[in-house]
Amino acid sequence: GFAPASRISTIGVSEILKIGARAQAMKRDGKPVIILGAGEPDFDTPDHVKQAACDAIRSGKTKYTALDGTPELKQAIRDKFARENGVSYELDEITVATGAKQILFNAMMATLNRGDEVIIPTPYWTSYSDIVEIAEGKPVLIACDAQAGFRLKAEQLEAAITPKTRWVMLNSPSNPSGAAYSAGDYRPLLDVLLKHPHVWLLVDDMYEHIVYDDFQFVTPAALEPVLKSRTLTVNGVSKAYAMTGWRIGYAGGPRDLIKAMAVVQSQATSCPSSISQAASVAALNGPQEFLKERTESFQRRRDLVVSALNAIEGLDCRTPEGAFYTFSGCAGMLGKMTPGGKRIETDTDFCAYLLDDAHAAVVPGSAFGLSPFFRISYATSEAELREALTRIAKACAALR
Ligand code: PLP
User: Fold this and answer.
1) Domain Aminotransferase class I/classII large spans what residues (predicted)?
2) What is the pLDDT of residue 186?
3) 175 C-beta closer than 6 A to ligand 1
């Protein structure tokens, strides 16, 4: 019979995909399910980006490219880092991969030896710990609760560092919490890292353009030049430019690390898609005004969702600074009985109830390493959001 390798044996199919599959199946059966689980913008890729891809195909940019990114795209990324983040990287300090997910994968495969530790604040994007485990490292999960704004505290970081610590992974704004680190939030953490030169910092800036209420996005390599020589700044076009399917992510970091990551990539994919790279050049070099408009639309939806959730007794939703997720506490629902006579013991039970009863698909905090919470993705129309929240409120009121 078949037996998987031990390196993947601890990694289950993601809870998010399981709920998604159940929700889709219910939809096929004619149930009016509203899916609030998707991690992608509901906008379309901008026309000028699509046009650049068509031009690339017609002009024969259809072959293997340089291993970790075309010179044109690396230049566009270099300009982006300088223009938007105030960080200067040389071209050989930049790498491009098939999504930021592959950037993370390359980085972990290139740096972790068996048992090396990676500090990951929770709630976290599930792939962080799974990728660390595939690379035979050890995720060290640190719970960051809602009272702390879902942010890691300096004392927690200090206490978690051991001689085996290789990386700390930070994500701002965060999937799933929407919490973001201001310069002031970052400072004490960077001060801790300055004292521990063997610890490297991976920052995932994927949602940098989706921030609200005049929040000032910053990235650590700009804040602390001393740490830049051991920081990997990860970003991508997926969320900012509604390009999830194009599969382009990128990073800036120290030359030796970037080179080692290219070794991994050379035996995995050879290079990212030539056509998607050409499209990404257009995205990064092209007009940026539409980002503001889209963010304003996300902010209206955030406000709608946060106030509707907080109006429900037993739920507690912190207002996120960015991304397109809310992460609400549901401790007040635990121990209650559903009209069908089932007791809600966990956030997973609560989410199963919302799917069955309210036909609203949301993801339990357990999928992100922090309970009892649940995540709503509000990257969907205001009409659908209103309908889903009305149903959720009704389902919650029916609990005894
Ligand atoms: N980082 C975070 C925090 C994410 O939420 C995602 C996607 O959900 C990614 C990275 C990966 O993005 P991609 O592989 O599409 O570039």
Assistant:
1) 32-392
2) 98
3) yes
Whether ligand 1 lies within 6 angstroms of the CB of 100 is answered as: yes
Residues of the chain with pLDDT under 70: none
Domain assignment of residue 391, given as a range: 6-44+290-397
SS3 292: helix
Query: Is 1 a member of any domain?
Result: no
pLDDT at residue 12 in the model: 72
Residues 119 and 72 in one domain: yes
Cβ contact 375:337 at 8 Å: no
Position 42 scores a pLDDT of 87
Q: At what angle do helices 127-134 and 100-111 cross, to 10 degrees?
A: 40
User: How many domains does the chain fold into?
Assistant: 2
- CB of 236 within 6 A of ligand 1: the answer is yes
Give a yes or no: residue 91 inside a domain. yes
CATH code of the domain containing 373: 3.90.1150.10
Q: What is the residue-wise DSSP string for 321-381?
A: SBTTEEEEE-GGGTT-B-TTS-B--SHHHHHHHIIIII-EE-EEGGGGT-SSEEEEE--S-
125 C-beta closer than 6 A to ligand 1:
yes
Query: Mind listing the pLDDT tens digit for each residue in 300-349?
Result: 999 999 999 999 999 999 999 999 999 999 999 999 999 999 999 999 99
Q: In testing the pocket of ligand 1, which one of 14, 15, 239 has its CB within 8 Å of the most ligand atoms?
A: 239
Ligand 1 atom 5 nearest Cα: 175
Query: Smallest Cα–Cα separation from 142: which of 163, 168, 164?
Result: 168
Whole-number pLDDT of residue 245:
96
| 335 Cα to the center of ligand 1, angstroms | 34
Predicted pLDDT of residue 256: 98
The response to whether residue 244 sits with its C-beta less than 6 Å from ligand 1 reads yes
